[in-house]
Amino acid sequence: MYNKGLYNDWVPKPAQLLLIILLLAVVMPLGGVYVGNISYIVSRTGAMTEYFMWANYATTIGMGACMPVVLRMKMRFKVRDKMTVLLVLLGLLSYLNSTTLDPMIFVFSSLCIGFLKMMVTIELFLPLMAMIGNRGIFYGAFYTFVLVLNQISGYYAAQVSINYNWQHFYVIMAVACFVLALVHWGFMHDKYFALKVPLHYIDWLSILLFVSTFMFSAYVFSFGKQQDWLNSKNIINASIAAFLSFALLTIRQLTLKRPYLSFKIFTKNNVQHGLFMLFMLGMFLGTTTIQNSFAVGVLGYDQLTNAKLNLLMIPGLIVAGVIAIFWFKKEIPLKMFIFSGFSAMLGYAIVMYFSMVLEFNYENWYLPMFLKGYGMGSLFISVWFYTLDKLEMDDMLAAIGLVLVWRTFLAVGVFSAVYSWFLYHFQVVSIGDLAVYMDGMTVTSQNAAAFKAIQLNAIIVAGKKIFGYIILAGICVLVYVFIHHFGKERFGYVRFVKILSGKSALARKRLRERKRLLHEIKDAAGPAL
Predict the structure, then answer these.
(1) What CATH number has the domain spanning 1-202?
(2) Among residues 209, 296, 304, 222, which one has the least CA distance to residue 259?
(3) Which of 91, 162, 206, 290 has its CA 20 to 30 A from that of 305?
């Protein structure tokens, strides 16, 4: 007997919704490292920050590696057994992180946490999609909830680390996982989702090659600046290993009867343009590197105050979610919604360009962080919807892992690494320019404190230069979005011919069937950050 729900029939519907929200509140922000307490882990373990950046990327890579096999995992095990075991494993991994001082354990556990939590997340989308119905409205509500939740979890990770210790937040998350496992063992039904399928069709070697490709790439992005990029043998070897792993992965997919990945969807027009827009979104999200350098290095914020800045994005995220719900409810074309998101990101860059001064007050953050929050929320919702819209389910499931890694890891990782290097390079250039006005007569023991002001101004100048280039690129992105057709029929007679031939009705029927069957799988990958 099959049951597509999660809980026993005797559990009231409001209680089921509450349990799902509790699961989301614990599982979605769960990770191997938390941005809010990385500095405290670094100071306690004595390891380099780059290891924990690598671990942060590993969580996303684990989620991407799980996506192509998540449906088979969903249909292989009973819901209660699977959820209980997964929550216990996530709790154990979180507890492991609270007891170790080895940074490589953080990297490995982050990879495993990403893989396991994607299987948990999948289970939550069928009932939520059934409640909301409209996929676009679901995106608007769910993305807003998840993005707000991530900002709050980062803040509390910093606060708990200050008030107690960095281990305490991991222990809290572990206890929450154990409690939820116990609760769901009592409330979930003991039935299969659908026809039981075997696991031996999963190509574990392909998963290993996928993980190898992007973990080596993450090593390059994380340690590139620290090891001076191509002047380091480790960076060169890791780059070669990433390239060879991807080549072997591609060759293996072409020879398998049931490939782990599919590259068919990357020939679709909307996927190609969607990937480009996701890459441009990474260009704006990567500015967190510059923002942190300015907030901590120039303004002297502590980690908790710096974490509070992310809370200022919440009003913008909520506004984006409300507008998205209205937009999809009225079935308005996505073009101007996407345009508004990139405009908000461009506005954030412009405000930061003109506002980065030594006299910057905390209240000056309200406008740029609101714009950043709105831009992030609207683009995460709309561009992801557009990229994966109207795709064949089989092809989409076999490639969505790559799309997820592209959006959350590659795009952000590339620009974060580039900004980090240019931030350092432009500081050196700025100090060299300022050195023209310094000599032994003007710099004495009485005014040696001027060196600090020179350094701070060098950081500001470097940040302004990068934001200036981002503004120029952002203008080009706005022009691109404005002239892009977003799937609109260029000639009316094409649609008329489709109606006469009956193809339009067939297309609508096939679209309804795809939405009814497995839309929650596609939507599950969206909120990964």
Answers:
(1) 1.20.1250.20
(2) 209
(3) 91
**Computed over its alpha carbons, how large is the radius of gyration of the chain?**
24
* Nearest CA-CA partner of 398 in 188, 256, 497, 244: 256
Q: What is the pLDDT of residues 391-435, one digit of tens each?
A: 766 666 667 778 888 888 888 889 998 999 999 889 888 888 777
Provide mean pLDDT across the span 56-70. Answer: 88
What is each CA distance from 76 to 73, 79, 198, 377, 524, in whole angstroms?
Answer: 5, 9, 6, 34, 18
pLDDT band for 513, please (50, 70, 90 cuts). Answer: low
Q: Which amino acid is at 475?
A: I
- Check pLDDT > 50 for residue 500: no
Query: pLDDT tens-digit profile of 282-339?
Result: 999 999 989 998 998 888 888 888 889 999 999 999 999 999 999 988 888 888 999 9
Q: How far apart are CA 288 and CA 238, in angstroms?
A: 25
CA distances to 12, 27, 189 from 179, in Å: 20, 12, 18
d(CA 524, CA 237): 34
Q: Say which DSSP state 294 is in.
A: I
Q: How far apart are CA 37 and CA 41, in angstroms?
A: 6
For the stretch 90-102, pLDDT in tens is 999 999 999 988 9
The count of other CB atoms within 10 Å of the CB of residue 302 is 13
CB 7 within 8 A of CB 22: no
pTM recorded for the entire structure: 0.87
> 45 near 162, Cβ under 8 Å?
no
* Tokens encoding 515: 């939405």
Give the other-Cβ count within 10 Å of 458's Cβ: 20
Q: How do residues 157-169 score in pLDDT, each as one tens digit?
A: 889 888 888 899 9
Highest mean pLDDT among 326-335, 344-353, 518-527 belongs to 344-353
CB 344 within 8 A of CB 474: no
Tell me how far apart the alpha carbons of residues 110 and 153 are, in angstroms, rounded to a whole number: 16
Residue that has been written with the tokens 């590197």 in this structure: 289
Nearest C-alpha neighbor of 416 from the set 158, 56, 64, 144:
56
Half-sphere exposure of 101 (CA within 13 A, CB side): 5
Look up the CATH number of domain 265-435+451-486: 1.20.1250
End-to-end CA distance of the chain: 36
Selection from 282, 261, 521, 527 nearest residue 406 by Cα: 282
Structure tokens belonging to residue 525: 């990958």
Integer Cα distance of 350 and 425 in angstroms: 22
Distance CA 172, CA 91 (A): 9
